[in-house]
Write a structure and sequence with these properties.
The complex is a heterodimer. By secondary structure, chain A is mainly beta. Helix content of chain A is 0%, strand content 50%. Chain B is 0% helix and 47% strand. The chains are: A mainly beta, B mainly beta.
Chain lengths: 116, 111
């Protein structure tokens, strides 16, 4: 158990709909990362937040957005869903504080999204 | 941003030592090298991290030459349960660099 909690574990929705995936980072971790992994594909970095602020952006579609709340949990919002958005979405967290170079990212078990 | 190159797949037999090499020619001074293991439909699991020379923990060893342009993950005496995809990452979280996963190495351990 990495300590990173993601909900829901599985989600089935229709095209055009909107869903929200939730992530609780490990206790004490300030950074949250979101990744997408399609079937038999690698991990694609989407976005990173640090202590409530967006810090880095990867290949995140405009239909997707994320935020990190004051209690450090994060939500990934996926809207106008398409069949191709079906994937496993991972949240990860790390401490990423000052003077803590090289620290580790810990991953949750993911949220399976199926768009039908 | 340091790009990594790994073999796409490797085969091994139970009980053997497996070495997976990762190339990262553009590694930056502050970058660390981290290896993850991923089973199907599960989140990547941290294996080992290092900056230079050799690091060893209870599951693996990581060898990093002086020029740091490559690294080798060594798994001693693999078992069937070590069949997974292994990812090499290079980056520095302190500077909020984006950590990109490469395609990874699919290790297939045979009985």
């Amino acid at each position: 158990d990495s300590g990173v909690t993601q909900t829901p574990k599985h989600l089935i929705t229709a095209t055009g709909q909107r869903v929200t995936l939730r992530c609780s980072p490990r206790s004490g971790d300030l950074s949250v990362y979101w990744y997408q992994q399609s079937l038999d594909q690698g991990l694609q970095f989407l976005i990173q937040y640090y202590n409530g602020e967006e810090r880095a952006k990867g290949n995140i579609l405009e239909r997707f957005s994320a935020q990190q709340f004051p209690d450090l949990h994060s939500e990934l919002n996926l809207s106008s869903l398409e069949l191709g958005d079906s994937a496993l979405y991972f949240c990860a967290s790390s401490v990423s504080g000052q003077g803590q170079s090289g620290n580790t990212i810990y991953f949750g078990e993911g949220s399976w999204l199926t768009v039908v | 941003l340091a790009k990594t190159t790994q073999p796409i797949s490797m085969d091994s037999y139970e009980g053997q030592e497996v070495n997976i090499t990762c190339s990262h020619n553009n590694i930056a001074t502050n970058d660390y090298i981290t290896w993850y293991q991923q089973f199907p439909s599960q989140g990547p699991r941290f294996i080992i991290q290092g900056y230079k020379t050799k690091v060893t923990n209870e599951v693996a060893s990581l060898f990093i030459p002086a020029d740091r342009k490559s690294s080798t993950l060594s798994l001693p005496r693999v078992s069937l349960s070590d069949t997974a995809v292994y990812y090499c990452l290079v980056g520095d979280l302190h500077n909020f660099n984006k950590f990109y996963f490469g395609s990874g190495t699919k290790l297939n351990v045979k009985p």
